[in-house]
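Q: Got a minute? One more chain.
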Amino acid sequence: MRAGSDPGWKGDSHPRQEGPVDLRLAGPALAAWATAALVLDAPLAWSLGAAGVCLVVGVALLRVGSARYRAPVAAVLLCVAASAVSAGLHGADVRRGPVPEVARRFGTVAVEVELTGDPWLSRPRVRGDRAAPVGVLARGEVRRVGEEGEGGGEGALTRSPVLLVVDADVPAPGVRGGGPGARAGWLRLLPSTRLRLTGRLAPPTTTGDRTAAVLRVRSWPPPDIASAPSTWQRLAGRLRAGLREATEDLRPDARALLPGLVVGDTSRITPDLDDAFKATDLAHTLAVSGSNLTILLALLIGPPGMAGLAERRGIAPVLGLSLRTTALLAGALTLAFVIVCRPDPSVLRAAACGAVALLALATGRRRSLVPALATAVLLLVLYDPWLSRSYGFVLSVLATGALLLLAPRWSEALLRRGMPARLAEGLAAAAAAQAACAPVVAVLSARVSLVAVPCNLLVELAVAPATVLGFAALAAAPLSMPSAKALAWCAGWPAGWIATVARTGAAQPGAGVDWPGSWPGALLLATVTVALVLLGRRLIRHPWWCGALALLLLLVVVRPAPLTRAVTGWPPPGWRFVMCDVGQGDATVLSAGPGPGTAVVVDAGPDPAPVDRCLRELGITRIPLVVLTHFHADHVGGLSGVLRGRSVAAIETTGFAEPPDQADSVRREAAIHHIPLTTAAAGEERRVGPLTWRVLWPQADAPSAPDGPNDASITLLVRTAGLRLLLLGDLEPPAQGELLRTPEAADLARVDVLKVAHHGSAYQDPGLLHLTAPRLALISCGTGNPYGHPAPSTVTALRSTGATVLRTDRDGALALTGAGGPRGGMKVMRD
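A: Always. Here it is, folded:
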């Protein structure tokens, strides 16, 4: 009736129809949030005292004072008091008991611990020339603790949250021996499982976390199961396992992504896919979020504002369900969502945000959503004060608030300029969430994504079908696996699209820019964002300016090679050799022609991202051969970055397969990408286009076995455009001396370029340096590395031979151009 009598009426759900935003609960919620974050580390007596003062003052204000201000101020003080009590008790609970005390003494104990979350694999990390072994991490609560050697039923009762660290050699309960089988056994354990084990306690490595200690599990006596998981967790485990089985035959990216998108199971997510999602700010799709629940509720209830109308839509009216029954079913669906996705803080946070969306769907009244969000924040902080220090909680609240407050207004502004409704809504939502969350993301990653908004916009249409079909496969798996596989196959297409968008966005040369990873940096980014929003309000009135700026941003992101070379001069035209800046490691590129995108790569550095970025800047798409001089992690750890999106014909390695874990990792990468592996042999000569090289080391008939991987490094004498380059890998003095006694030693006299062995360490053979007498000596090393590379003595010795010494830690990536010979001119350019 009102719509007919008022021509200006825009509908109940219109963002501007209901007057100003109701912010009355925002102040108390924010005050409780800040109080919890500050009080968690404070002594309990101080927290209770502060709470008492706030309580007394708040109650007094309700009786006296200005009628206009006393209720809001009293509400803030009462919420602060409640938050101080809750946070003080939670903080004291973590600090009390025998576990923190034993952790301060790094004591070894026998414990009974209950898992509170799914175990996960630690991410491989390169430390020096070694890769830290991949172990299993898990959250748990110590329920009983005793001295080492005590039986499982003895010891003091307690309830202390710990982080379990399980090394690769620790057998899983019910699994004999360590290794991959043990890791798989640990990863199959469900939350609420109780374990008896022995381990060493240590203080937590980070502050502000709900962790009383770190428990490094020992292999003897072997851990065993004290009690099985709860019925609900076993049910949830079977459903999750069914989803994994249903997705087993999908393409790799969809197989990895779909369980994460549906129930937060990221066990199959590879490091390179995880990096791609982080680089494009799509990581929220890999975690359980309120949007997952919102999609399911929308499928049940229908569009916003129609839940209470006779013409309401969704599955519920089709099934003939009443509004009350629909509400009960929505509540049951929310409970099932929490159980299957695990009732940990992140899932409870997602359920609360989903409940806010449920209110929007049920009422269609946006004015009530901000108080609902504030209420959700207040209740969550009082229930679990540790959320106040959670970056995930901050991002969830900021994103939800932006979608409620900013997105509708931005969408309306775009609609007024003639943009299609669906595009306007999607673009406004992606831009609002990015604007609100970018400062916090910058603190975490020290980087700002320039592709986040278009990538989020491109995946928006795929998230809903992937989620709905994924949940359908989850529900069908216990009843009919063929049906579940069919549903998973259908869900695999939108999931694969999401992964493709993430990989494509992350692969752009200008996908992100470095930014100070600190709170002052976040404040600066927030200021820049506000300035851009204010500028955008003016620019939106001028379509030509908007188009020009969009084109400029596209060029900055894509960075076409000719344009980049014209602006920055990198990479220089006609480059022959490039030493990439990959930190403390080695990665070199040799131009192999005939086209500009073909090169031979020698070593891959410690991490995939730097070498991938270097090859993208050089425009390398085809690699006839990757040479891995030896298997230390600072030379092979970035192999997946070399292989990413490029055609690689073969990988050549040394025959000395040490360390074995890194050698196995190389073999796995080669097998995954179907790339043949070959072994280098001294005397081998090859040619690719204008590039030729000969393998000088290792010698098959060397008088003694290599003294470690460094002395087994493949050594190459390379010729290109009349230039002679000697690449020594990490050869140390024993092998360098042997190299001097080989027949090929005469060819090493006065080379043009020397890739100095072992990052310029002090261990060099003076005879080899004087024989080679290079015109240019290049050293690849990381800034501030703990090994003192390059050694001053080595730099001095090289300069004494007349060499110009350049190093990546100070000079960045280095490119060699020109030609050798009497008429050639060799030039070096720095990135």
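A: The chain is about 45% helix and 15% strand.
Q: Perfect, thanks.
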